[in-house]
Amino acid sequence: MTTIEVPDELAHEIDLLAGAKERSAYAVDLLWREVRRIRQREVLRSSAGSWKPENHPELARGGAAFVEEIRAEPDIRFEDALNRQSS
Known about the structure:
This protein is mainly α. It is 66% helix and 0% strand. It is flat.
């Protein structure tokens, strides 16, 4: 374990949010989230341009349009489950 010093005002704010007995767990959770966020950004930057538009014609109108199209399609598994339930 490593001790990290934080200003008293910050410790007080953390205590208000998490409770004095949960301060460390709360801080560790926040630090892990930030580490994962930074790592994810690094991966996204390094992979920029790896998808070629010609390999993904379904995205020609944009990713949002493609997702909406998928969402509008009937869910066959869901329909089957409903039909079995009503039989």
